Amino acid sequence: MDVTAGSTARSRAITALIVGYFVVIAYATITNDPLAATVAELGFGVIAIAVGAMLYGQRRGPRSVLAVAAGCLVAGGVFTFGAVVTRSAALNALSSLLVFLGVGCYVYALWRAN
């Protein structure tokens, strides 16, 4: 199973999103800026959806672990947007849980591949 990023351009774009997310979250933490914190939350959702879409393209079948990881990441990203809009703690917790589950499934897929 090839669980690498695929195209170089896609890998660089996702890497840039992740680096940008950490820069914005650091800025928001240092300055206590609520707008920057909101931008960081939205960036987190975009990253989750982008990584989920990338993994979905690499799955071997509809019931593969990568398909589950992709679905969890995309759903977590969508719930992140809902949590930002509604300021719902329940949606925020569900988003975090789904992203954590998606990353766990991805790690499991890597472990099984080797």
Automatic annotation (TrEMBL):
<feature type="transmembrane region" description="Helical">
    <location>
        <begin position="64"/>
        <end position="84"/>
    </location>
</feature>
<feature type="transmembrane region" description="Helical">
    <location>
        <begin position="12"/>
        <end position="30"/>
    </location>
</feature>
<keyword id="KW-0472">Membrane</keyword>
<feature type="transmembrane region" description="Helical">
    <location>
        <begin position="36"/>
        <end position="57"/>
    </location>
</feature>
<feature type="transmembrane region" description="Helical">
    <location>
        <begin position="90"/>
        <end position="111"/>
    </location>
</feature>
<protein>
    <submittedName>
        <fullName>Uncharacterized protein</fullName>
    </submittedName>
</protein>
<keyword id="KW-0812">Transmembrane</keyword>
<keyword id="KW-1133">Transmembrane helix</keyword>
